[in-house]
Write a structure and sequence with these properties.
432 residues, alpha/beta, Aspartate Aminotransferase, domain 1, Aspartate Aminotransferase, domain 2, 2 domains, seven-stranded mixed β-sheet, four-stranded mixed β-sheet, 13 helices, globular
Amino acid sequence: MTWFAPYPLFLVRGEGTRVQDADGRWYEDMIANYGALAHGHNHPALVGAVTGQMARGTALGSPVPLQYEHAERLRALNPSLERVRYCNSGTEATMWAVRTARAYTGRDLIVKIDGGYHGTHEWGQVNAFFAPHRTVPPHLPGVPEGRLASGVALSAAADVVAIPYNDVPTATAVLRQLGEQVAAVVVEPVLGVGGGVPSAPGYIAALQRLTRETGALLVLDECATLRLGPWQVKHGVVPDLTTHSKIIGGGLPLGAFGGREDVMALFDPSEPHPIYHASAFGGNCLSLAAGTAALDHFGAAEIAHLNFLGDRLRRGLNTAAASVGVAGRSVGEGGLSYFHFGNTPPRDAADTARLRAGREGLRSLLHLSLLNAGFLTAPHGLLCQHVPTAPASVDALVDAYVNALDDLRPYIAVHHPELLEADPVGTRQDAP
């Protein structure tokens, strides 16, 4: 995620919406730590919360009032969190959500999205968006084969069925055939690493209906999409369990999972045989203090501003590509955006893979061009803004895309002529 040729940046400082590298050069930060930051760098309220908590203790080894204070704010944003537990990351949150679903249903099988990313635990690295280390035959005809990351046990694929994103007929067929074995359906409302693909209207609601029919739990992975509102509140879907991370820690590591009270009651230590959940740093005071301050400064106005910036950026990037005659589309929702080469936006992770195939060099050159123009973006195409980001900064990024794509036209003409739609007046024709 952070390495790229010829060498990655080493960053030494963040200030507002900018970051500085080890050579002293400043960049406008258009990644926001891959969506994990919402308030920019060194926000005074967050800095004050962390420094004040440092004097009182960082990890006290016991329940602390800060857990309740943070949970109250988190539930105010997301009312489906009737009960919440804390961990250290999104990886842990999704791992624990699935363990909870298995304990509640007494079933083992997990249905996930092909190309969906839910962290680096075993089942999360089955059919994630990467080049597979090895493959296994699919569970059913019509669904993708199992793809395992390097180091993942072959046995992990036995308990995971991957289905294409935004495909209700396939989801219906799988859930109706395997439903009595399925503990949970785990889904991102916007496909993150797989290309920023939004869920189609009605898709998550269809998954919710299918899980209710079969007795499985719907787990909505909102680790990235809380910055949208969260997504489930914005779109009126109430899952059984939800996972959060990224912006809830205010720049420090924090994860949370929760949902229905009857499901989360399995963790009640006063009852016989509770689910055992321990973590030396889960819900630590420092992360909770930063996260509480962050959530105190993340209301309707801040969310609306991030959504406004994202909409403005996507419109601008689409116009930028068209203005220089290069086929390119920006996709996403709210404050999460991606840019893809090609005329048709991806519908699922397989589409994203096809759009990227053979274009690694072009995508790398675009990323490096933006860096040279003073914009920090993700090599794989993710674009996120901070609450303090000004519309003028978004417009400047769009201008940088125009210049970069214009400069790359001769290269595209040689290596990717299928992406050239026209030869607009004023486009430079110098050699690659």
